[in-house]
Specification:
Blueprint: E1 21-26, E2 31-32, H1 42-55, E3 62-64, E4 69-72, H2 74-84, E5 90-96, H3 100-111, H4 121-128, H5 140-145, H6 157-183, H7 198-208, H8 218-236
Parallel strand pairs: 2-4, 3-5
Antiparallel strand pairs: 1-5, 3-4
Helix pairs in contact: 1-2
């Protein structure tokens, strides 16, 4: 056996990237890293707790035995404390043994969005019909926000409900168009029209006599353009 390689009970060698061991650690041994740069809102904490209650803890926290600091999992641990009702419990934990500099680098790396992927919105939208999105860390406002950047704080309840309805309509429309695209050799079928401001966008829809909507069937636009062309052509004669 080569140096640095360990055999698992079954299968091949342990990956050379694996630098942790799983141990059962008492909650009292785990300290929050005082430098941890992550923060969380009350709403996000509630979403996290709901997910933990629905699914449980499905991946271990990371703890550095050399310092006693929690390296990854601060927010999950705080919600586990609430669910347990005390700190008198143990956890199966990914234990590492590194100096403080490495610990801080790992802490940032594991929470750094710049080193993580983004959602493919189309694929995420496809998943929404198959899951309870509230158990995946979303609420209705998050789903509305997937349609674009919106300021929830200045929206009325009616605005939010309208965005929710538009989102659901958009999902159904996307599914119809995807089915159609496969029948047409999977050709591209979306076009984005960009206006300099909201007033020009409103003017565009007003000219066509179509309700201003985030997602609209291109055939409707074509039909209105044809009607407008025929009317203008008739007036010219």
């Amino acid at each position: 056996m080569k140096a640095g390689k360990k055999k698992r009970g079954r299968g091949g060698n342990i990956s050379k990237t694996e630098r942790f061991e799983i141990h059962e650690i008492h909650r009292g041994q785990i300290k929050n890293a005082p430098y941890n740069p992550r923060k969380i809102t009350r709403e996000a904490r509630e979403k996290l707790r709901k997910g933990l209650e629905a699914h449980g803890l499905v991946s271990p926290l990371t703890w550095n035995k050399r310092t006693g600091n929690l390296v990854s999992g601060h927010q999950r641990l705080s919600q586990i404390d609430l669910i347990e009702g005390s700190q008198d419990y143990t956890l199966q934990t990914a234990v590492i043994d590194v100096d403080e500099k490495q610990e801080k680098e790992i802490n940032v790396l594991l929470n750094n969005k710049a080193a993580q992927g983004d959602f493919d919105i189309d694929r995420l939208a496809d998943l929404m019909d198959d899951i309870d999105y509230s158990n995946a860390g979303f609420d209705a406002d998050d789903i509305d926000g997937l349609l674009g950047d919106i300021d929830i704080d200045v929206m009325t309840d009616e605005d939010i409900e309208d965005r929710r309805n538009r989102y659901e309509e958009g999902i159904a429309h996307r599914r119809r168009m995807q089915s159609a695209s496969y029948r047409e050799n999977n050709i591209e079928f979306y076009t984005n029209i960009v206006f300099p401001d909201k007033s020009k966008r409103a003017e565009f829809f007003a000219m066509l006599g179509i309700k201003d909507e985030m997602i609209i069937d291109g055939l409707r636009v074509m039909e209105q353009i044809r009607k407008r062309y025929k009317r203008d052509h008739a007036d010219g004669e």
